[in-house]
Write a structure and sequence with these properties.
The complex is a heterodimer of chains A (250) and B (310). Chain A is of the alpha/beta class. In chain A, 27% of the residues lie in helices and 30% in strands. Chain A has 6 helices and 13 strands. Chain A has a 9-stranded mixed β-sheet, sandwiched between helices. A two-stranded antiparallel ribbon of chain A has the order 2-3. In chain A, a hairpin with a 2-residue loop joins strand 8 and strand 9. In chain A, helix 2 packs across helix 5 and helix 3 packs across helix 4. The longest helix of chain A has 15 residues. Chain B is 25% helix and 27% strand. A 7-stranded parallel β-sheet of chain B has the order 5-9-4-1-2-3-10, with helices on both faces. A 5-stranded parallel β-sheet of chain B has the order 13-12-14-15-16. Chain B has a 3-stranded antiparallel β-sheet with strand order 6-7-8. In chain B, strand 7 and strand 8 form a beta hairpin. The longest helix of chain B has 13 residues. The chains are: A alpha/beta (250), B alpha/beta (310). Strand 9 of chain A pairs antiparallel with strand 11 of chain B, so a sheet runs across the interface. The complex binds flavin-adenine dinucleotide. Flavin-adenine dinucleotide sits at the interface of chains B and A.
């Protein structure tokens, strides 16, 4: 089967972000961009499925500006076979992303779509669930273990109380969590090879989707800063302060 | 017109996060209806009817909602949502799993992790691991939201007397099925609602060493949490993780032990009232958010803390 992996270009997780002075958003110009860390885990899982003979082809798809090609190249260097760039400048909300991915999934017919559980920029945690709803497929979210069987998959999910195991029929949409695997670093030869792998470019309109945002962003501001406190000399002083000054313990 | 709150429940009881979600609904204004969807959930519906400020409970008690699989529950919510101004669920793994599915079926762009309800279909939510706060306005017919529990004080679980109305099922599904769960058992308070949390990081070095934190926790009536590094290393189960991708907590007192203070960790605890950091590295970023910092080896400081608490 084919595995489809959506990959998002986001501000690198190590960057300390800055809010724009005009409060319209977060500064992304001249900032290090990377693949969303959760999507790396999804790519790794897809490549492992291919290596295990469970998948024939891994397709990485990114929705975003021209530079999202780099994100697709990263996926190709990790072992994905080909890429699809759905090019669009400006914000694309999860619902529009899901509609675009639905069109791609219908054209490609994957057995599994592996999404990251959330993007670390908008922290929305919506795309996988929305995509599975639009396709009428089952969903396995926050997955930390995935076994592909005959026509079905068994997924272990990280939930508030611990772990939950479910079975989903294939095709299915999965959203992956941090502990599913540890993504590989692409080797130099694989980075070179990735340059020759094909990337197909489309637009949302080609896929019949209008990506105009539905929500209006009124403003984006920094959270109120937390004042740095004091250093205490020892445990006795700490406990005294917690009892008498902060009054948070009895 | 009004707000539909999706209850998180186990059939017998309504889970506490439902009470925070009702509080968010109160902030939005209008009549509040609580939806209880499950199989064998009459007792939970009775409990929901007692929640302060709730005027109606809709209960869909039908076999297809066994284990509350998203594929079965989402269509039920869509059916109930008709005519409401907004549908809200807690932004925990229950709400995060089902609500985007509901939103997509309704062709609505969901707003995740709402931290303030400003009225006029306008909401605040944290983005970039809480390093920015976005104010967004919805133009949808029905707003679909998940609510950050720590931003809304729970309403009282008792005091209301809502009318209970039964609604029919929406049909079975064979897309997904439930296999089982492994739940972390603990007598300590639940992490997200505890008044005091003590968390350990990579500096703890092993799962066994968490026993030191547990002893302090038991003296304080605290819950025990962890950083991602501690969970990844297998010291403690996944449900201990505090942070951007784990649980968000905002207790009166948060004690971070052997945790460096990465932004992804801070995202889950920086709204705590008082933060204590114990770390041997005086440059650790956790000290920038700590009200009280103790530069010390945790293997000396934690036992001393236990002794000092008497
Ligand atoms: C996409 C993504 C999501 C993430 N989500 C989360 C999340 O939800 N939650 C989370 O916590 N992290 C998350 N992380 C990971 C985060 O970036 C950090 O790697 C992690 O929080 C580090 O954990 P730590 O502080 O325990 O370990 P470290 O950063 O290794 O810090 C260990 C600390 O212990 C101190 N120490 C060591 N020994 C002692 C001793 N004997 N006495 C006193 N102090 C000692 C050290 O000085 C150090 O400061 C995420 C990362 C990514 C990329």
């Amino acid at each position: 089967m084919k595995v489809l992996v959506p990959v998002k270009r986001v501000v690198d997780y190590n960057v300390k972000i800055r809010v724009k002075a005009d409060q319209t958003g977060v500064e992304t110009a001249n900032v290090k961009m990377s693949m969303n860390p959760f999507d790396e885990i999804a790519v790794e899982q897809a490549v492992r499925m291919k290596e295990a003979g469970q998948a024939e082809e891994v397709i990485a798809v990114s929705i975003g500006p021209q530079q999202s090609q780099e994100t697709i190249r990263t996926a190709l260097a990790m072992g994905a076979d080909r890429g699809i760039l759905v090019q669009h400048d400006g914000e694309v909300e999860p619902l529009a992303v899901a509609k675009i991915l639905k069109a791609v999934a219908e054209a490609e017919g994957p057995g599994v779509v592996l999404c990251g559980k959330q993007a670390i920029d908008d922290d929305a945690n919506q795309t996988a669930q929305m995509l599975s709803a639009l396709l009428g497929w089952p969903q396995a979210t926050f997955v930390s273990k995935l076994e592909i069987g005959d026509g079905e998959a068994t997924a272990t999910r990280e939930v508030d109380g611990g772990l939950e195991t479910i079975k989903v029929k294939l095709p299915a949409v999965c959203s992956v969590d941090l502990r599913l695997n540890e993504p590989r670093y692409a080797s130099l030869p694989n980075i070179m090879k990735a340059k020759k792998k094909p990337i197909d470019t489309k637009t949302p309109a080609d896929l019949g989707v209008d990506p105009t945002p539905r929500l209006q962003t009124v403003k984006v501001v920094e959270p109120p800063p937390r004042q740095a406190g004091v250093k205490v000399a020892d445990v006795a002083e700490l406990v005294a302060k917690l009892r008498n000054e902060a009054k948070v313990i009895g | 017109m009004g707000i539909l709150v999706i209850a998180e429940h186990d059939g017998a009881e309504v889970k506490p996060h439902t009470l925070n979600t009702v509080a968010a609904a109160q902030a939005a204004g209008g009549d509040i209806t609580v939806a209880v969807i499950g199989s064998g959930c009459k007792a939970a519906a009775d409990a929901a009817a007692k929640i302060a400020g709730v005027s109606k409970v809709l209960v869909a008690d039908s076999a297809e909602y066994d284990n509350q699989m998203a594929e079965a529950v989402a269509p039920a919510i869509v059916k109930m949502a008709d005519g409401y101004d907004a549908v809200m669920a807690p932004a925990n793994t229950f709400g995060k799993n089902v609500m985007p599915r509901v939103a997509a079926l309704m062709d609505v762009q969901q707003i995740s992790e709402v931290s303030a309800v400003l009225g006029d279909k306008t909401y605040e939510r944290p983005i970039y691991a809480g390093n920015a706060i976005a104010t967004v306005k919805s133009v949808e017919q029905v707003d679909v939201l998940t609510v950050r529990m720590t931003s809304f004080d729970a309403v009282a679980a008792e005091g209301g007397s809502a009318a209970i109305e039964e609604v029919g099922g929406t049909g079975g599904q064979d897309l997904s099925s439930y296999v089982g769960q492994s739940v972390t058992e603990s007598d300590r308070p639940e992490l997200t609602s505890a008044k005091i949390v003590i968390s350990g990081g990579r500096g703890m070095q092993s799962g066994d060493n968490f026993a030191m934190l547990e002893r302090v926790a038991d003296k304080l009536g605290a819950a025990v949490g962890a950083s991602r590094a501690a969970v990844d290393a297998g010291f403690v189960p996944n449900d201990y993780q505090v942070g951007q991708t784990g649980k968000v907590v905002a207790p009166d007192l948060y004690i971070a032990v052997g945790i460096s203070g990465a932004i992804q960790h801070l995202a889950g605890m920086k709204d705590s009232k008082v933060i204590v950091a114990i770390n041997k590295d005086d440059e650790a970023p956790i000290f920038q958010v700590a009200d009280y910092g103790l530069v010390a080896d945790l293997f000396e400081a934690v036992p001393a803390l236990e002794a000092e608490l008497g």
